[in-house]
Write a structure and sequence with these properties.
heterodimer; A: 535 residues; alpha/beta; FAD/NAD(P)-binding domain; seven-stranded mixed beta sheet; 16 strands; 23% helix; B: 135 residues; mainly alpha; 0% strand
């Protein structure tokens, strides 16, 4: 590489300041290991978010949209989705996509770690729910998880450090319907404090979690982890886009090269390199660097959780713009495999408020473009606004090597690096699963008294959960890293994000991403003396 | 780029047809939506101006939704921009919010947690026992 300035060094360099990077940095610095973190985005202060303003619904369509192609910011990289059924969603910044996540906090279920054994498909994880349980509990303390203990969907009840948020009129309506059918539901668990907690304020139920919390009341790593890590000595560099992992002649990582906002290149040398850049950013960087791909699986097995939704409208005034959003309730009634349904695995449901009035402006289907206007606009908003809620359905996505990330030949980011190109098709199993679940959710709405329901069978802008693109395992021929996130081919190169996941579960993955990161980084610290470093 | 007088007049024609009022909600004309409310939206998200102006510059008289539909089919992106600007101007307006009983995404106390009624609803779920599948 030429034209590089400012060489620096630390024991460890981490790429990405999202949830997994935050866990890793905090543990490493506490163990006395020097850490530099390179993040292509910037800090986002709470007052930058628009939730408390009248124009919240306007800016969520561009400035705070979860699709980087819609936002079009220089610090995001574009993603070619022309070969994908689903748009990946993410955010480059300190805290990562958590800055605009819904904070739905779900542990994976015990069966999620054993799908090969139980259902004969995909792969088992190299560890069990019980192995990961202490790490869940550990990260849940940091993430201010609110919820009700004793969830009958979990062997240990999935205890939470804080009591649950209110379920409100919407939750009571949804719960009554589920009770009529004898179906499982539970008050939602969210990384949103119901009480003042460490550096976080209590939730104010504003229901704008998905466009960033303006009330400092959502657990995101920029509040829960980075201030303490920086206080302890972590060097967090923002506006730093990593373009290459460098290696020495024996093939060990020697550091990274990164590009600043002015286009200047920098070299950062480190004994250990850890990638925490999400299920697209991590394989993109590996592919750009030509590393760790003996198995041919870097970028493959992409899973994104196709998402469907059923909206119900009621006669009652439910104040259904009130949060949390956040999830009000969840249901795992149809989570486990029942092959008589015509598919394997299942889906988690989350009950959500319906949001502001503009949620009801748009029509459905392929009708006239003006269907949402004229007297219809007024009648629809009057009938539905405040009286509707949604059962969202997160379907388990099985790994398929055809679903993959590649480097674009035609698009580049603002630094001139190849954009990510996504090749992704929703499988027949997933489509059958979503059809079954939406039909059940319509029944749940009707049992709750809905006077009208509408089904969205697949939402294109739903690729929040990016997993599987650098799978962990024991065999270097069939996995990218070992069971502790250490690359088989580059012994001092690690991956700690959702790329590692052998399967996706049907759960929101942040809890498991952070728990796995904690498990992996503690193993790295324990085994540090055996990690070969570059000459 | 700003709206010319002709473009603003054309915008008013669209607004009157697309937001006629009804169901105890105000019309675009009641709110003079094409004046300050539109400017407020464009100040917050100026990226909508260029495609909206492109759409407003399309020739044609606007008297009915069918007229709007015909033009929308010729420039979907422009029509989408117009729709976003009009809808946000409308629903950000205090009179519209008052009419539909919407206080905005207001702050409320979350410390109450689950009520006794909520816990009562949960009893049958608990009574049915565990539902997870043991590996």
């Amino acid at each position: 590489m030429t034209g590089t300035s400012l060489t620096a060094h630390s024991d460890v360099v981490i790429v990405g300041a999202g949830p997994s990077g935050a866990v890793a940095a905090g543990e490493l610095i506490a163990a006395g290991i020097s850490v530099t973190v390179l993040e292509q985005g910037d800090w986002v202060p709470a007052d930058a978010f628009d939730g408390a303003t009248p124009h919240w619904e306007l800016t969520q369509l561009r400035k705070w949209h979860p699709n980087p192609n819609v936002r079009g910011r220089a610090e995001d990289y574009p993603i070619d989705t022309s070969h994908s059924d689903v748009n990946p969603l993410m955010f480059a910044g300190v805290g990562g996509a958590a800055l605009i996540y819904g904070a739905h906090w779900m542990r994976f279920m015990p069966s999620d770690f054993r799908v090969k054994t139980l259902d004969g498909i995909a792969d088992d994880w190299p560890f069990t729910y019980e192995d990961l349980e202490p790490f869940y509990a550990y990260v849940e303390e940091a993430m201010a998880v609110s919820g009700r203990d004793g969830n009958t969907a979990y062997p240990d009840g999935a205890p939470c450090p804080l009591p649950p948020l209110p379920i409100g009129k919407v939750g009571r309506k949804a719960a009554a319907g589920m009770n009529k059918l004898g179906w499982h539901w539970w008050p939602g668990s969210n990384a949103i404090p119901s009480r003042p907690y460490r550096s976080l304020q209590p939730c104010v139920l504003r229901s704008t979690c998905g466009t960033g919390c303006s009330d400092e009341a959502k657990a995101t790593p920029d509040r829960t982890h980075w201030p303490q890590a920086i206080h302890q000595g972590v060097n967090l560099v923002t506006g730093a886009r990593v373009c290459e992992i460098e290696t020495d002649s024996p093939g060990r990582a020697s550091g990274v090269v990164w590009i600043d906002g002015k286009g200047e290149r920098h070299r950062h040398k480190a004994d250990v390199v850890i990638l925490c850049a999400n299920g697209i950013g991590t394989p993109r960087l590996l592919l750009m660097s030509g590393l760790a791909n003996r198995s041919g699986l870097v970028g493959r097995r992409l899973m994104m959780h196709p998402f469907a939704a059923v909206m119900g409208t009621f006669d009652d005034d439910l104040e259904s713009w009130v949060g949390p959003a956040g999830q009000i309730l969840t249901s795992m009634q149809f989570y486990e495999t029942d092959k008589s349904r015509g598919f394997v695995r299942g889906a988690k449901w989350n009950c959500m408020p319906a949001g502001g009035p503009q949620s009801f402006r748009a029509g459905y289907g392929d009708g006239p473009l003006t269907d949402a206007w004229g007297t219809t606009l007024h009648e629809r908003v009057r009938r539905k606004f405040g009286r509707s809620f949604e059962w969202g359905i997160v379907g388990e996505d099985l790994p398929d090597e055809v679903n993959r990330i590649a480097l674009s030949d035609t698009q580049t980011d603002s630094s001139g690096l190849p954009a990510a190109e996504v090749h992704y098709t929703v499988s027949d199993n997933t489509r059958a699963m979503l059809d079954f679940h939406t039909a059940r959710a319509v029944e749940a709405m009707e049992a709750a008294g809905a006077i009208e329901t509408s089904v969205t069978s697949l939402i294109r802008d739903c690729g929040w959960h990016l997993m599987g693109t650098a799978v962990m395992g024991n065999d270097p021929e069939t996995s990218v890293t070992n069971t502790e996130g250490r690359c088989h081919d580059v012994e001092n190169l690690y991956i700690f994000d959702g790329s590692l996941f052998p399967t996706s579960s049907g759960m929101n993955p942040t809890a498991t991403i952070m728990a796995v990161a904690a498990k992996c980084v503690l193993a790295l610290i324990e085994n540090r003396a055996t990690v070969g470093t570059a000459a | 780029m700003t709206l010319s007088a002709d473009q603003r007049m054309h915008l008013a024609e669209f607004a009157k047809v697309m937001i006629p009022g009804g169901a105890d909600m105000p019309s675009a004309e009641d709110l003079m939506l094409w004046r300050d409310p539109i400017d407020e939206v464009l100040a917050i998200d100026p990226s909508r101006l260029e495609p909206m102006v492109r759409f407003l510059d399309l020739p044609g008289n606007i008297a009915t939704l069918a007229d709007v539909e015909a033009l929308a089919q010729t420039d979907r992106a422009g029509f989408e921009a117009l729709g976003i600007v009009l809808a946000n101007a409308y629903f950000m307006h205090p009179q519209t919010r008052a009419a539909i009983g919407y206080p905005g995404q207001e702050a409320r106390d979350s410390s109450g947690g689950l009520t006794p009624d909520d816990e009562a609803l949960l009893k049958p779920v608990i009574a049915r026992g565990p539902i997870y599948r043991s590996p």
